[in-house]
Amino acid sequence: MRILVTGGAGFIGSHTCDQLVARGHEVTVLDAVTAPVHRGGRPMYVTPGADLYIGDVRNRDLLANLLRRTDAVYHFAAYQDYLPDFSRFTDVNVTSVAALYEIAVAERLDLQRVVVASSQAAAGEGLYRCPEHGEQLPTMRPDEVLRAGRWDIGCPVCDGSMTVCRTPERVANPQNAYGMSKHASEVLALNLGRRYGIPTTAMRYSIVQGPRQSVYNAYSGACRIFSLHYLLGSAPTLYEDGQSLRDYVNIHDVVDANLLVLEDDRAVGRVFNVGGGTAYTTEQLAEIVRKRFGSEQRARVTGEYRFGDTRHICSDIDALKQLGWRPQRTPEDSVAEYAAWLPTMPDLDDVLAEADAAMRSLGVVRSVRSHG
Predict the structure, then answer these.
(1) Could you tell me the domains of the chain?
(2) For position 354, what pLDDT does the model report?
(3) Alpha-carbon distances, residue 268 vs 87, 272, 368 (angstroms)
(4) DSSP run (H or E) holding 16
(5) What contacts 29, CB < 8 A, 6 or more positions away?
(6) Please, which of 63, 124, 169, 318 could form a disulfide with 175 given CB 3.0 to 4.6 Å?
(7) Which helix (DSSP H) or strand (DSSP E) does residue 164 occupy?
(8) Mean pLDDT of successive 10-residue segments in the chain (372 residues)?
(9) What is the pLDDT of residue 355?
(10) Rounded to whole angstroms, how far apart are CA atoms 12 and 26?
């Protein structure tokens, strides 16, 4: 099969390309290889045997030329991080999906499958349950509440305690610009796919971990941040109280899911959560990283938080399991592989300081009023 992978020089894209080529597919990569993800330009891990075209996925002529010789598409190209670049999220993440389908419809292309990368961020704070008022979809926590050091979310009706639930695909409640753009991409792709007979699947990835995850993003990647700190001999900061729950999934499990939905017709017209299946606190993940690096310095709680962060989120992955997929690797596996890969990257000394300065200058990192 002739497969176009947009963003195929990136983290998820390159690993997926590796396996597509290994399975005998003819793979073409379209990637802009721009900063911050690709600070040094073309990465060394672009898949051997894949044809790389360096360019913007919003370049209509380039995208059309590549689609004309394509049987299937993995659309991974995106602008990520949760920084306040609101228009750029929409411009890159939504416009590129619209252009893909616009070209396919206008030129009557026979695409056998389109797999669009979405994100757990599309679910926002996810699904909760109040003992008295049932299922709830809370909105983003106000800054005045966070500045007071109140981290947990009360019921929107009675302000009582709620139980965090595994969040299924039917929940879409994005609370930041990145999540909004990803949800819009899902809706656009699936609905246009249904309308014009283009078999489409959307993959809502949880926090993906493993080698090749960019070290240069300002915001994303707990494993990256913790690993950089311990590699460089410092202790990482845990935002809020370190008890936020997250759902971590190994990159190789993600690739397995990507390959499955390429050929399984049961996946057409659907969005799937792709997660690890188990919730970990950020403190627990930091401990896994600390032990891997053999450090005696535990992560610190400093009274800081990132405005716009999700408190808890864990995806329900039962739908994808019903297709025969299940996660095979643990966060320990992901951290071990990332820790082995990270020292091969050059110029790491200033990365953490640069990221911290960027987030503070944009008002992302803030402090509680009463922390001593």
Answers:
(1) 2-127+166-215+248-283+309-330 (3.40.50.720), 129-164 (no CATH)
(2) 80
(3) 30, 10, 46
(4) helix 11-22
(5) 4, 5, 6, 8, 9, 13, 17, 46, 47, 50, 51, 52, 53
(6) 124
(7) strand 163-164
(8) 97 97 98 76 87 96 98 95 81 96 98 98 96 97 95 96 98 94 98 98 97 78 92 95 97 98 98 97 98 98 93 97 98 97 87 79 85 49
(9) 76
(10) 18
b/e per residue 246-273 (b: at least 16 CB within 10 A) = bbbbbbbbbbbbbbbbbeeeebbebbbb
C-alpha–C-alpha distance, residues 12 and 84, integer Å: 23
How many beta carbons lie within 10 A of that of residue 6, not counting itself? 28
Q: DSSP per residue over 134-147, as a string?
A: EEE---PPPHHHHH
Structure tokens at 320: 């994808």
Residue at 66: amino acid letter: L
Give the amino acid at 147. Answer: R
Q: Which amino acid is at 129?
A: R
Tokens 């017209």 sit on residue: 269
C-alpha angle with apex 209: 55 to 360, nearest 5 degrees?
A: 75
**H or E element at residue 359:** helix 351-361
As a whole number of angstroms, the longest Cα–Cα distance in the chain is 64
